[in-house]
Amino acid sequence: MWQKKFKSVCPVCDRPVDGLFYEENNQVFLKKTCPEHGEVRDLASSDAELFSGKMDLVPEDYSEKCSLEKCGSGIFACQDHFARKSPITFIEVTTRCNMSCPVCYIDAGTKGRDIPLEDIKKIISEIKKHDPGTHLVLIGGEPTIHKDFFKILEAVREAGLIKRCYLATNGITLSSEEFCKKVYDAGIRWYYLAFDSVDKEMCKQVRGSYRSYEASRKTIENLKKFSRAKIVLSVTVVKGVNDKGLPAVLDFAVRNKDVVKRISISAEVFCGRQTSSEDLLKKRITSECIESILRRTLGNGAATMSLALYGTILKPLNLAGLLPKRTGIYTMPHPLCGNIGFLFRADDGSYFSVIGLAIKNSAADLYKYGKKVKDFSVRMEKRKKILRAKLFGNILWKLIAFCYYVPVYFGMILTFIKPSFVFRAVMAFPKSIFTGKKVSECLLGKDRVEIHYLVSCDKYNFVWERMPYCATHHYRIDAGTKKVTKMCGCYVFPFRSYADSCNTMG
Question: Among 3.30.930.10, 3.60.21.10, 3.40.50.11240, 3.20.20.70, what is the CATH number of 88-307+324-352+447-466?
Answer without folding.
Answer: 3.20.20.70
